[in-house]
Amino acid sequence: MFEGRYACTLDDKNRVSIPAKFREVLSANYDMTLKLTNLDGCIAAYPSREWQAIKEKISNFGAMRKEARAFLRYYYSSVTECQIDRLGRILIPQTLKTDADIKKNVMIVGIDKKIEIWALERWEDLVKRATADPDQVADIVSELGL
User: Fold this and answer.
1) Which of 77, 107, 95, 80 is nearest to 16 (CA)?
2) Which residues pair with 48 in a beta bridge?
3) Domain residue ranges of the chain, discontinuous segments joined by +
4) pLDDT tens digits along 106-141
5) What is the DSSP track for the chain?
6) Which stretch of DSSP H or E encloses residue 68?
7) What is this structure's pTM?
8) CATH number listed for the domain at residues 2-119
């Protein structure tokens, strides 16, 4: 399980270091390959086995609305396989970087079975919106049973 957040910087070759804690999870439970795609304003990075489970779930979904098919075209067409190099880095393809509005500074976030890579500015905006209404936060906490 991936959890936590880490501020990182892309190098001049568009590489970013995957946090050591995440690499430990990968080496203990998966291989050192990630499938990257754009999702929800960021780059979603899935271990290969988790990506396989997503593909199976989608293929078993059955008939889909036109909008869902359009989204899946975008989602699948963005997929890139990345090997984590011996220094713990992955290369962020330019197309994914552009779609996620990533320039230099990123926040790498663990979200259960996936890793998200956010442009730092987008991450900060997301946090502001997610925590802006204390009553809404309290309702969500209660709904989740936390």
Assistant:
1) 107
2) none
3) 2-119
4) 999 999 999 999 999 999 999 999 888 888 888 888
5) -EEEEEEEE--TTSEEEPPHHHHHHHHHHS-SEEEEEEETTEEEEEEHHHHHHHHHHHHTS-S--HHHHHHHHHHHHT-EEEE--TTSEEE--HHHHHHTT--SEEEEEEEETEEEEEEHHHHHHHHHHHHS-HHHHHHHHHHHT-
6) helix 66-77
7) 0.91
8) 3.40.1550.20
